[in-house]
Amino acid sequence: MKTRRLISALALLLAACGAAAAQTAGGSYQFALEDGLTKYVEFDASAQTGGGATGAMFFSDETLVTYQDVDGVGDPPETHAGFFFRAEFDDMQVSGNKAVMTGTVRDASITSLIGRRVLLTVEDSGENTRDRVTWGVYANLQRDWTPSDAELREDPGVGMTWWATDAERRDDQGFAMPRDESIGARTFPVASYEFVSAATGSGDIFVRP
Predict the structure, then answer these.
(1) pTM score, two decimals?
(2) Considering 10, 64, 134, 183, which has the largest number of Cβ atoms within 10 A of its Cβ?
């Protein structure tokens, strides 16, 4: 009986340690750039043990936004006096006091934003320093062509996948090819993000690695 109780206690302890070690990020932050127009973000994200993440974000911006017809399909320009969107996260990456989260826009005041990829990067700067944030909304990349050898009527390499590594390094983990071109939490290194320079800011962001 004592052995069973000991095993149960150890299992609970390990479960508690595993839960405490989960990577999470969240908070709310209101800020303005030099134009003085208010932007607001509220979010929460939790990394999953097997990969990916759960959570969501809300973002609003008072900035006047104009969308141009960059695809040449003849759509007229759209001008909006401010907008908002809600997105669901599917992945995140944490490095120290910084977190990168990515997901898909599920609802928005501008309908053309729905379905696009969104990337949110935050920095938990501590109690005495203002937290920092940056974000981006990206159109889904759609390829309507398949690369092949023009000199072959039937290129046997079409559709093949492979693993690319550095032949001179035994420790190189490499990556699968062709590479996934969708925007994700691991598309860019965490250290490569440049945070916006907010003229004003209030709120609290936390990152738990």
Answers:
(1) 0.70
(2) 183
